[in-house]
Amino acid sequence: MKETMPVQKSDILAAFERIRPFIRKTPVLELPKGAFGLSNPLSIKLEHTQASGSFKARGAFNSALSQDAIPEAGITAASGGNHGAAVACAAAELGIKAQIFVPEISNPTKIAKIKSYGADVHVSGANYADAALLCQKHIETTGALNIHPFDTAQTIAGQGTVAAEWLEQTEGFDTVLIAVGGGGLLSGIATYLEGGPKVIAVEPIGSCSFHAAMEAGEPVQVELNSVAANSLGASKCGALTYETAKNLIAQSLLVEDAAILKAQAMLWQALQLAVEPAAATGLAALISGVYQPEKGERVGILLCGGNVELQQVEEACRTL
Fold it and tell me: What is the pTM of this model?
């Protein structure tokens, strides 16, 4: 199986060396048992402090830097917000023009972040799929290079560098809980950790394209109705990400929105970490009991994005 996989661990290591000059080495918090009322020690990677505010910068930089040449029309992307900010950030750093297409569900904080990097932003369409269609029309008209948010080998390899960096910073973990949208982060981390810590996919019940693909045996369309949909809002997971991750993960779990909001509020109140609902999804699986680690099991949690409106965090705190 390993020989036929589109992304190898060596690709992730090559991507890591390629993007190191442009990304941040994000911190890791090592928490003893008792944190959040849990009986297991936690390793929490603060990837929400990454350049552009999410892990997406890794895939965006790797995708751009892997090209032999960039078209005169520059680069473009469809995004729920975080990927667009990452592509805009990469474009600004590398001196490339960028056109970003985002759906109307994207929050103002993310749109403002994209604009702050000087990219042209087009807000149109009800969801990511609509924005993707508009982006494709732009590509066909101008010849701009598409930087896909999850379903290319370059994106997957870039996102996998999170795991490479994390293992440099920690004594290790037995299990890692990864929030899933289109599957690029999950695929990259699962590829890098193959044969090591077990990887568990976690999604909101109302935004679960990867879980639905696992049940159907192929990517399928799903309805989106979750507090985390503007980050984990792929209505259909990637064909490449599904094929890459399906045999590398230990479990695919679903969590309620209420648990996500509670976890988001706990991260703020206990650790003063303002993160998106999507970033709280892994912790939500623990505090809700959807995932129950064994005694002494060391659990890794990735806080994947921090482009959040503080008002939303305050509202989440009222749910406690």
Answer: 0.95
